[in-house]
Amino acid sequence: MIRAVIVDVDDTLCLTEGASFDLENEVLARMGRPPMPRTVHLSTWGEVLLDAMPHRSPGLDLRRFADLFPVVHREYLAAGKLDVIPAENLEALDTLVSAGRTVMLLTSRTETEVEHMLAPEHVLAGRVSAAYHQGNTRFRKPDPRVFDELLADTGFTPAECVYVGDSPGDALAAGGAGIRFIACLQSGVRRLDEFDPRYVTTSIPTFPEVATAVSAILDS
């Protein structure tokens, strides 16, 4: 029985790599630095932001970037340029909730980067019951212990959970924790052949197919 569907945020629930690329380059521009190439951003996508930025912009004043990033991040959110969740993805979450599944988020984002999605007025309110991020987990993906707090808080067993994500690191974390994994390939950033097949239960081309995929796992 699948009781919990755990969902990654970036390039799973919403497509964010392109928007994040623009956002980070805007911060760099305000610091008087040249833009990073898209290829560099793609090659480091999925890494923790402040770990990745020295590779994306060598010689960067990381403290100044960290101070300016939240300012620009808020501007992008207010302008509707970031974290836009399509209506069909929300409908997919509704289908999961209606079927009695608990929906939670598990992301590598910092608490600041995810807190707006947990606001009472956000579209995820009533759909997502909890979110796990750098602020309330001791470990980060691909370490399978990233699920420790979620499992301890909810009492769910790994066998009762499925994780939906877009990266090989997501699959590795889930597989190491004994949690089934659905690879969402909608962003086009990753191909299925980049994933370790031992850790992929099934794959979906777009997020709205997640409910069907979960039902298929139950029937298998």
Question: Key features?
Answer:
6-stranded parallel β-sheet; DNA polymerase, domain 1; 220 residues; alpha/beta; 9 helices; 11% strand; Rossmann fold; 40% helix
How is the main sheet built?
A: 6 strands, parallel
Structural class by helix and strand composition:
alpha/beta
Number of domains: 2
Q: Remind me, CATH topology of the largest domain?
A: Rossmann fold
Question: Kindly, what is the distance between the CA atoms of the first and last residues, rounded to a whole number of angstroms?
Answer: 11 Å
Characterize the overall form: globular
CATH architecture of the largest domain: 3-Layer(aba) Sandwich
Low-confidence stretches: none
Cα radius of gyration in angstroms? 17 Å
* Helix/strand order, N-terminal first: EHHHHHEHEHEHEEH
Total strands: 6
How many distinct helices? 9
CATH superfamily of the largest domain: HAD superfamily/HAD-like
Percentage of residues assigned to helices? 25-40%
CATH class category of the largest domain: Alpha Beta
3D structure, described in words:
With about 220 residues, the chain is of the alpha/beta class. It folds into 2 domains: about 5-15 and about 85-220, HAD superfamily/HAD-like (Rossmann fold), CATH 3.40.50.1000; about 15-80, DNA polymerase, domain 1. The protein contains 9 helices and 6 strands, in the order βαααααβαβαβαββα. The protein has helices at about 15-30, 40-45, 50-55, 60-80, 85-100, 110-115, 150-155, 170-175, 210-220, and strands at about 5, 100-105, 130, 160-165, 180-185, 200-205. It has a 6-stranded parallel β-sheet, with helices on both faces. Strand 4 (about 160-165), helix 8 and strand 5 form a beta-alpha-beta unit. It is globular, with a radius of gyration of 17 Å. GO terms for molecular function: phosphoglycolate phosphatase activity. Pfam families: HAD_2 (PF13419). One of its GO terms (cellular component) is cytosol. This is Phosphoglycolate phosphatase.
